[in-house]
């Protein structure tokens, strides 16, 4: 499973990229706004740190303007992935860009039917938002299971990019279902490393080692 981080915080991106666990980055207009940076500069900065796919979202609602925005974003770097909303105009844009060999991430997916449309439009990634479904009392992970099954049935090449992740168990469940990518907040990626028994075990090992009075170096 690939790990993307869902942030526009360049410091966090640099810190986590150094762990070797970051295969890509997803941003959205809210995250970009929070960064306080000029959007095009921000995407260029992220692309210079992470060589994998970096999602940059268009903000227009109509096909023509979306295509113009995508043309500007694509020029920033080779690894820019154009993010479009799951709307009829967004999917039309997805089809044109994908036919042209551009990576497209279709975002704001909340149903298996929508995911089917995105795959038919040639999306490189579909982003189902599990946390936001959980938030309204719906089973977000059931959506991932449905999409994985549907894509498998028809051998679609679109990768399932599990988004709106809230905790490590979303990632574990997604991995068990065979989803291709999880995009997570930096704090969630950090949580994956932790286990109290690891800390406890390491403490005991080092205490015993100290008793020997030895040093490896
Ligand atoms: C995905 O690309 C989105 O940016 C993100 O996962 C949304 O997450 P949220 O529901 O925590 O805002």
Could you give a quick summary of the protein structure above?
The protein is an alpha/beta fold and 217 residues long. 53% of the residues lie in helices and 17% in strands. An eight-stranded parallel β-barrel has the order 1-2-3-4-5-6-7-8, surrounded by seven helices.
Structure write-up:
With 217 residues, the protein is α/β, with parallel strands linked by helices. It has a single domain, classed as Alpha-Beta Barrel (TIM Barrel). Helices cover 53% and strands 17% of the residues. The protein has eleven helices and eight strands. Helix 8 (140-153) runs parallel beside helix 9. It starts with a strand and ends in a 5-residue tail after the last helix. The relative contact order is 0.13. Erythose-4-phosphate (E4P) binds next to helix 7.
Query: Could you tell me the number of beta strands?
Result: 8
The oligomeric state of the chains shown is single chain
Strand order of the largest sheet: 1-2-3-4-5-6-7-8
Order of helices and strands: EHEHHEHEHEHEHHEHEHH
Query: CATH topology, anyone?
Result: TIM Barrel
Strand-residue proportion: 15-25%
- Ligands and ions found: erythose-4-phosphate
Mean pLDDT: 98
User: What number of domains?
Assistant: 1
Q: Which class do the helix and strand fractions yield?
A: alpha/beta
Main sheet summary? 8 strands, parallel, barrel
What is the name of the CATH class? Alpha Beta
**Helical amount among residues, as a percent range?**
40-55%
What CATH architecture label applies? Alpha-Beta Barrel
- Return residue spans where pLDDT drops below 50 for at least 5 consecutive residues: none
- End-to-end distance: 37 Å
* Shape assignment: globular
